[in-house]
Specification:
The complex is a heterotrimer of chains A (about 325), B (about 375) and C (about 500). By secondary structure, chain B is an all-alpha fold. Chain B has helices at about 10-35, 40-50, 55-80, 90-105, 110-140, 145-165, 190-195, 210-225, 230-240, 240-245, 250-265, 270-275, 290-300, 305-325, 335-350, 355-360. Chain C has three domains: about 5-240, Rossmann fold (3-Layer(aba) Sandwich); about 245-335 and about 425-430 and about 455-505, P-loop containing nucleotide triphosphate hydrolases (Rossmann fold, 3-Layer(aba) Sandwich), CATH 3.40.50; about 345-425, no CATH class. Classes of the chains: A mainly alpha (about 325), B mainly alpha (about 375), C alpha/beta (about 500). Chains A and B meet through helix 3, helix 4, helix 11 and helix 13 of A and helix 6, helix 13 and helix 15 of B. Chain C: One of its GO terms (molecular function) is ATP binding.
Chain lengths: ~325, ~375, ~500
Amino acid sequence: MDFFHVLVVLLESTIRVSVPLVFAALAGLFTERAGVFDIGLEGKMLGAAFAAGAAAAVTQSVWVGLGAAILVSVALSLVHGYASITQRGNQIVSGVAINFIVAGSTVILGEAWFRQGGRTPALAEGARFQTINFPDADMIREIPVLGPVYADLLSGHFLLTYLAFAMVPISWWILYRTRFGLRLRAVGENPGAVDTAGISVIWLRYRAVICCGILCGFAGAYLSLAMTAGFVKGMTAGKGYIALAALIFAKWRPLNIMFACLLFGFLDALAIRLQGTPLPLVGQVPVQLMQALPYILTVILLAGFIGKAIPPKAGGVPYVKER
Amino acid sequence: MSTPYAKLPGWVEYGLIPLINLAVAFLVAGLVVLLVGENPLEAAYHLINGAFGRGEYIGFTLYYATTFIFTGLAVAVAFHAGLFNIGGEGQAYVGGIGVALACLWLDQTMPWYVVFPLAIVGSAFFGALWAFLPGWLQAKRGSHIVITTIMFNFIASSLMVYLLTRVLKPLGSMAPQTRTFAEGGQLPKLDWLLSIFGLNIGTAPFNISFLLALAAAFAVWVLIWRTRLGYEMRTMGHSPSAARYAGISESRITVVAMMISGGLAGMMALNPIMGEQFRMQLDFVQGAGFVGIAVALMGRSHPGGIIPAAILFGVLYQGGAEIAFEMPSISRDMIVIIQGLVILFAGALENMFRPAITRAFSARGQRAAAVVQTKGA
Amino acid sequence: MNNIAIELRGIDKSFGLVHANRNINLRVRKGTIHGIIGENGAGKSTLMSILYGFYQADNGEILVDGKPVSIRDPNAAISVGIGMVHQHFMLVENFTVLENVMLGAEDSQILNKGIAKARQELKRLEKEYALEVNPDALIEELPVGLQQRVEILKALYRRADILILDEPTGVLTPAEADHLFRILGQLKAQGKTIILITHKLREIMAITDEVSVMRRGEMVATRTTRETSVEELAELMVGRRVLLRVEKGESNPGDVKLAVQGLTVKDSRGVTMVDNVSFDVRAGEIVGIAGVAGNGQSELLEAIAGIRKAASGTVLLNGRPVDVTGNADAAELRGRGLAHVPEDRHHVGLVLKFEECENAILGYHHDPRFANGMFLNIDAIRKDAEEKIAKYDIRPPNARLRTANFSGGNQQKVVLAREMERDPDVLIIGQPTRGVDVGAIEFIHKRIIEMRDQGKAVLLVSVELDEIRSLSDRILVMFAGRVVGERSPEATEGELGLLMAGVEGRKEAAE
């Protein structure tokens, strides 16, 4: 059953890799559904990861680290929100700017505070997340098929991992079953309808942006407190953009986001696994092709070749009462 | 139609407001310097000294500026047609293919002045190609150009890594780069230009592509303000409905503008590849595509503003290296922060100080040609 | 008790130099349908926006039920019982009817708790007012008439006692409009107060109890509907102004230069804006199309000029067909001798950020006079612009000045100079003197007459009836997308006003 074993390992690493994508894509979901376009997911994740690594190293507490990550990410979101909503500035420019500011700041501050070449100190046991093992995992693993599924796929992940996947139905519930979600989706389609119903468009959009910040905070914290034990310079490595691609590929729907992120995560894990191994018929697939696949797929979707991706109608457009 | 802002005199619009935005950006950057426990004034000194202190430093500053002129022009051309081309990074990267091909083919048999024109054509061709795809997708399929150009940046990155590790790398070598070019693939330096001013170029790679960049800036000016195509681009950028009225084809302009933009971005590759490194390496672009956005914003998309803005960023890069050398807490990443702040204040927050400035001007007793702001934010 | 539902005292609102509402006084009695009639630009929409809290008036008071209120935002308006049915629906297209109605009044954070109640309430409202709609239907799948019902239900759901309807029948078929009126009657019977904004006299006479007439930002009169007549209202609406009669001789019409046959144009929603229109324009004559804005004239001009696709019909320019239903090319039409002065000079006819000389070649930038191969001949362009400036007395006489800095009248002259100096065969003009000062108006009118005397075929569209009567050799009146009558310029204001307001006069074939 070597193939099965390989598959389990592959899926396990898929899940691991997908977690920050899921958080970040859900973050993007909230803000874009409200009509605020955000390509700064990358910057927020990176800033959050740094804050988490730095705070955890200083206080030796993983929870303080998590809190710091969320705080920083929300702060960055508010800057973007201020530029986009209140100042009605160009949302793309604002996102690009924030990405730059964070990229530079994390290194400068990291170097100044910890003097380790841009990284934060490696985190001790109490300062980072541990994996959670389900009861009797080692015993159950012996059972064929179901055993490894329970012991390796379901058990043995970080708290944040379970949280990430729990956030999918939770986000769905918030968007489709609460008043806040209804209004949020409305303001991204027709802010005029929201305004004439007596709801503040601005406050609603700010709340959406804050939600985005919170989720990006979790994404960043996962990177430096769970997946790796500390912050490393540039550790997001484009994940924010892959999350954006996943969001679009998922046509801005929560359940699709989970599958899109898993798909892109799978491609990532597969790329590493396949490196050097020739496939039947095709021969060796260049790892770079695998790395580029999420982006290529998104472009194909945007070109309308695999169905239409219709973004929120009022996306990227500041609300002005034009009469 | 309601414009919430009063008309301000030209010098305020193009001079004062950008300067204020820049000043605020630097102010915030100074705060970051303080935050890491260093002296902002000392940093400012090293910045200026590092950029202008010696002939060699000036050479480096202008070398960097060359790159940014190209990418700034690229973004500006697209802006005039109303398009936001964030793909300069990828277009510049792919443009390198054209340069590498020309050099690898002819560098040992031909002198630089034969290889150079071919490399120019090659870089522009590949850059334009990489911009053509998103442009076409926007024109014909309505795909949002901002998203597609971001995606293409990443695809370019993967593509180039593949090419540099599998295709263009000489056999037996481990480094992901082409072989070093012979003399035919090396651009002459502009040491003679600096010595006219009594400056010694030293080791700076300030090369002839700078003159090409200046020529390109002039050509862009001619294109935008003196040709029919430029007229059509500007019309579309200002008012798509007027463009339709005038019989201008929106899809044609979109594609052409993107191709020109991509071509300019691609030409940026000449500077590092043929001017400094004499081979094509991984990530020779190093973020220049994004700096181009800042340069275009600051320079208000006009070549006359882009060249000084590019030089400013050259100062930041070169001076930044000096700061990093003299003040170990502040690495080159400080420049990235400043870049981000400039983009933020000159781009997204560009109107933040307008109300205050407008009030200051109307308080001087000007005739109220202002339009009342509708209640909004 | 107090029987005045809403009273406005001295409402004043300006947008920069535009005085949209001047000292408006209005009293709307409870339980009545009160019409507000006026042409476009009369200030009706601004007034209603103030009532609904979109704008704040510069001066004046609003009293609801006798008590002064401050309406700072739509929430405040809703809380005093004012509900609005907008001309352009404020609906979320991919939500259901129920979701749209609930928006803003969801009752609790958890939607499901409020949904059952909302559904019940919605059903009750639907039955009570005969506004049946499937609550689970998506807005984008509903026909326009039903979408409007949702708009009304939204207001009723929020317990509006006063309903404002802004041009409600613009998107309805006559049958749907009649149904709407029955609903309004029902609402009135239930004690609701209704303010109906419209430019259609037929509707006013059919269902209102009182009607107020607005003109140029002022409330000029209020009448009890029973005691007035369409003629009186038409006259009040269109108004008496100083007639700027231009000296003109007899026209000498020659060949047909522009032939429009069965032209039908639909907008992006599929609503028919131009309905099977046919007419000819001959060389040496001015055909004026009169009508209140929004009756299809804009779409008609755009279709002929090649910037809007027609659904069906043909247009012949100098005898040769124009591909109006396919790929009509504005540039090609220019080459064939059509010149177009568009209605919207700010967004269509000019690029305000351009220098004056750059606008002087808009649409003609391929002309060999202005371009050498791919380069623009700047000197020739500037010189030509200066000649035009002199000839048309454009001030300030600076071809390098940004067009945004010219006054409205001078901007319009830039457009006219550009189009007229091309020596076209056919000239189509929309709203030539909108926003233009009196001095320039006379100049522009003279030029238009000159074009006619030089043998051009001129098609003139204007909402200014005086202008139409003063310049035209023949007048066609458009209403609801159709040509409802042809008259000579000797026809009275009243007669034309009636046609413009959709009241059938003597039936005529509009050929």
